[in-house]
Specification:
By secondary structure, this protein is mostly helical. It is 42% helix and 0% strand. The model has no long low-confidence stretch (mean pLDDT 84).
Length: 69
């Protein structure tokens, strides 16, 4: 459980979503359409590095086992 990982209660405020506007077509599937540019962008963005720092080997793993339906 997440509380075991952080040794304290973890909470998140649930807010009503605002308006949703779909992005223009050229933004859709960017990594597939522009693999070279995405390959240069992704490491510089630092997202994966930050996820690994926070979650270690669990970074990038997805599980829906604990998500209530």
């Amino acid at each position: 459980m997440i509380t075991e990982r952080f040794h304290r209660e973890v909470v998140a405020e649930i807010l009503t979503a605002g308006p949703f506007y779909p992005a223009e077509e050229y933004h859709q599937h960017y990594a597939k359409k522009n693999p070279v540019r995405y390959g240069m962008y992704a490491p510089a963005a630092g997202r994966d590095r930050q996820l690994r720092a926070l979650w270690g080997d669990d970074a990038g793993k997805v599980s829906t086992a604990t998500i209530p339906r």
